[in-house]
């Protein structure tokens, strides 16, 4: 998640200290793993790689790193062999005459080779330049051990000497990357997949999830580095299917449940430093997905304590959302509480939004029944109204597709969310998705694995298993073909060089909402 | 000192631990003084200022600093009110929506306003870019107190926000500069000077010296930051006349005496971190000036212990130098042991070099007598030979000027050093300097206060007091007119924008060898 921009500076927040205390009690220990670079790499332009670059193993031998002394404008790229999240240390010495000037060093941390090739100064987008993973460091005295205080998300590390002096050069040794996650690959039960493509997709999904599991489920360890509801829902599902770290999910649920607006709305995301802070951003389906995440969690754990603690907030989201549903069963979205659905604003989102509400309401009703909700009929009636309206008004029987009421637009997202919402039975859903595949595939104009995930799940749910597998291979598999060690925040198969921010140095190449193939494969195959 | 470049990687060094222990015993306590900015400044192009820029007091009020929140590409310049050397801390907060990206901040420390205006990326000279006093800092979490670990030499501090995010801005408060020196202005005895120009020159000299007095006499606290013999000699003289911190001079003498080559030569400069390291640079008159500095120290202190400890090294320098003096009394300089005299290589230095040797030999003989040197006649004979050769061969009686033997060149440096060496009596010296003033003033082509110091002292010594005062005012006074808070490493009155490195960001505007007017005024006025 990242691409949304709201400022709501007049919001008053409730902090429920009892719930937030439970969030803190479930703060995980971070597991550290020592990683040393496996090679020195040369980054070269090549359309076979992400954003037009690949890393080749250099003629230089990583075991002789200290011998490759570097002077002004000379650089070397270390390859960790895989994508990791953590801290970097390096020993540095001077070679030659006594060190008669400071060492001025630039370090660049890159998830993909294209980031090494990109010039930071060329980036001028609206997302903050502060996300670019580079540091400029002066060292007045050598030898020294450089221990960078910040966390990075990377596979490649460029060491570039801006200057030494003409009398000496810099020598680097003992590069160590301490990888961090709240889970370990050792927690993963063996899982056999015969199809080699799906096996690769599964493995990369799991690595993506692991790197995003820190003290919260982060959206991207390189950029945003924080807990969004949209990512959390998918990460939690993938986590149940793999690492099964229930404490982290519980912690994240409590973080959202513990910080709500005066009217009870959960924020789209929260910050955890310097203290627990809710963001002033609100997205319609993210709010109601709080109920879905709680229902999923209860389904996995049967943990009544968590359910009881957080049910009131889940109910509140549904109640707030239901105020937007009119007597006909039509969801009327508000400008200040928009549905996200996908980054793209090229299609109308009302029908997809209606689908997300039905989807969430179904899950809420399950936990409402567990909680012996007295007003259960209200929710069931709204659900019935919304389904009725969707079938009668939003479904075009001639086209066998859902439309957007105001302009009769037919788009992929509407079909997908109405299928996921199970507005019709599986047979009808199968017809809808078959029509969608026939008329709208190959998909264009959708940039996020988040939306692609929902397309694939809708295909599975509608029984179009083969089409679902093909789409997974064409989408996530294509990222692997381009060198992905972890799956990306954004990818358009029809435009492989697409970067939503105009430069690969701003893109996140390890992004939580792309980790779902592990869940999809385990659930549907 | 700075502008010399030698690599001698085959030198073997003796470390005399007994002497180096005495150097460490005289390591001074650094005195810290808290300085807060007095204003916010606007840097504007104006030929009235150093290198074409001045700082004007901004409309913004320093007491409201925290109110001036800064977003992408916005900056503010703090003015400390005077030049200082030390460490900087700053409180930083975010204002607006929750901090959804790191803060990326650039800090630039400038001795003169022109450094703020200069772009670092435009500098491409041979001196290391690592000297540019700027830092790029990421802060992941605000509020924070930024305590920069490095030491800076500056009056102006630019805070430039490279980026926040569109949702919040950075706010700065509590800027504190902790100024450092081994001496304090409180140690300075009151000293009345009626002439306001000379008073200003005296005060700026003293400030220059104070800022260069750290754990050694540094050449420049911004750039080089280390102990050179050439600067030490002048700093010690200015120090005797002002702060009178004898321990630091003693320490520096022991540092040079404790680290000599196998043949006994002292290096031109030494490093003190990460350990005591002699540089592999050798300059002829710097070596023999070790004897002059020791003689000056003994003259000031009558400290026989230091004299006895270091006399052998002083003698060694003279012995090595005397090997270059032929039977006629002619100094024959070697390429690997060049005379410095001045940065300029536009004039021949042999005659000036001959002068430095006579100057040093005279001072050595004084301490040799104290030490009851048995070979005293040898030194006295060489001195006589060199004086004889200088008078008979190097002096052009028609021109009343010293020439360079090989090409009959007449230059300022030759006259100055022969006068300082007292090759003739004062009457004759007066004639020589009068001729020099008449034929070669205003001086052109000399860039260093180091050489200008020797010109002024030669004028005083020759009895040309008025000319000496005029030259002091035209040289050091002109720097003050251009806004100098401390005196500079390099200055050509005939070319005020001259920068020896092509950019003001590389120049040192507080440089030890320019601090001598305090000594000259006290000694000769």
Task: Describe what this molecule looks like in 3D.
The structure is a homodimer of 525-residue chains. Chain A has 525 residues and is of the alpha+beta class. The first copy, chain A, folds into two domains: 31-180, Jelly Rolls; 195-524, Glycosyltransferase, CATH 1.50.10.10. Chain A has helices spanning 17-25, 113-117, 196-212, 229-241, 246-257, 284-301, 304-322, 350-370, 376-394, 412-420, 426-440, 449-461, 465-481, 517-524, and strands spanning 13-15, 31-35, 39-45, 53-57, 75-96, 103-110, 134-139, 144-147, 152-163, 168-181, 227-228, 259-261, 269-271, 277-278, 395-396, 401-402. In chain A, a hairpin with a 7-residue loop joins strand 3 and strand 4. In chain A, helix 4 (229-241) crosses helix 14 (517-524). The longest helix of chain A is centred in the last third of the chain and has 21 residues, at 350-370. The radius of gyration of chain A is 25 Å and the shape is globular. The model of chain A has no long low-confidence stretch (mean pLDDT 96). The A-B interface holds A 5, 7-9, 72, 96-104, 126-132, 135-136, 138, 140-143, 150, 162-167, 224, 226, 271, 273-274, 277-280 and B 5, 7-9, 72, 96-104, 126-132, 135-136, 138, 140-143, 150, 162-167, 224, 226, 271, 273-274, 277-280.
């Amino acid at each position: 998640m990242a691409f949304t921009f709201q400022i709501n500076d007049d919001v008053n927040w409730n902090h429920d200290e009892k719930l937030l205390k439970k969030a803190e009690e479930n703060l995980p220990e971070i597991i550290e793993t020592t990683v040393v670079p496996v090679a020195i790499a040369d980054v070269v332009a090549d359309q076979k790689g992400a954003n037009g670059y690949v890393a080749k193993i250099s003629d230089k031998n990583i075991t002789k790193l200290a011998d490759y002394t570097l002077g002004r404008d000379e650089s070397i790229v270390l390859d960790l062999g895989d994508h990791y999240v953590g801290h970097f240390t390096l020993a540095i010495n001077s070679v030659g005459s006594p060190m008669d000037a400071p060492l001025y060093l630039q370090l660049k941390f890159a998830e993909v080779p294209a980031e090494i090739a990109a010039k930071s100064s060329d980036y001028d987008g609206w997302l903050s330049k502060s996300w670019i993973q580079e540091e400029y460091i002066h060292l007045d005295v050598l030898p020294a051990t450089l221990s960078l205080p910040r966390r990075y998300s990377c596979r490649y590390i460029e060491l570039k000497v801006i200057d030494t002096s003409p009398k000496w050069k810099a020598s680097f040794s003992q590069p160590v990357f301490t990888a961090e996650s709240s889970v370990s690959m050792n927690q993963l039960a063996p899982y056999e997949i015969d199809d080699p493509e799906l096996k690769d997709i599964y493995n990369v999904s799991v690595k993506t999830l692991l790197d995003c599991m820190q003290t919260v489920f982060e959206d991207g360890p390189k950029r945003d580095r924080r807990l969004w509801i949209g990512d959390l829902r998918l990460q939690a599902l993938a986590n149940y299917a793999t690492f099964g770290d229930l404490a982290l999910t519980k912690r994240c649920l409590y973080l959202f449940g513990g910080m709500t607006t005066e009217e009870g709305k959960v924020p789209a995301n929260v910050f955890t430093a310097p203290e627990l802070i809710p963001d002033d951003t609100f997205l319609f389906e993210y709010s109601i997905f709080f109920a879905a995440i709680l229902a999923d969690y209860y389904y996995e754990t049967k943990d009544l304590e968590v359910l009881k603690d957080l049910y009131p907030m889940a109910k509140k989201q549904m109640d707030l959302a239901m105020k937007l549903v009119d007597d006909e069963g039509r969801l009327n979205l508000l400008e200040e509480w928009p549905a996200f659905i996908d980054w793209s604003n090229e299609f109308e989102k009302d029908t997809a939004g209606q689908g997300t509400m039905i989807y969430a309401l179904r899950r809420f009703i399950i936990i409402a029944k567990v909680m012996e909700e007295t007003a259960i009929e209200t929710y069931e009636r709204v659900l019935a109204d919304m389904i009725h309206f969707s079938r009668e008004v939003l479904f075009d029987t001639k086209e066998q597709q859902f439309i957007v009421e105001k302009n009769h637009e037919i788009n992929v997202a509407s079909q997908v969310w109405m299928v996921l919402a199970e507005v019709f039975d599986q047979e009808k859903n199968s017809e809808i998705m078959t029509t969608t595949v026939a008329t709208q595939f190959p998909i264009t104009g959708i940039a996020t694995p988040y939306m692609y995930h929902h397309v694939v799940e809708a295909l599975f749910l509608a029984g179009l298993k083969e089409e679902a597998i093909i789409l997974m291979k064409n989408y996530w598999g294509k990222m692997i073909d381009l060198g992905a060690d972890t799956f990306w925040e954004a990818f358009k198969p029809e435009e492989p060089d697409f970067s939503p921010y105009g430069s690969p140095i701003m893109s996140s190449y390890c992004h939580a909402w792309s980790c779902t193939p592990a869940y999809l494969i385990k659930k549907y195959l």
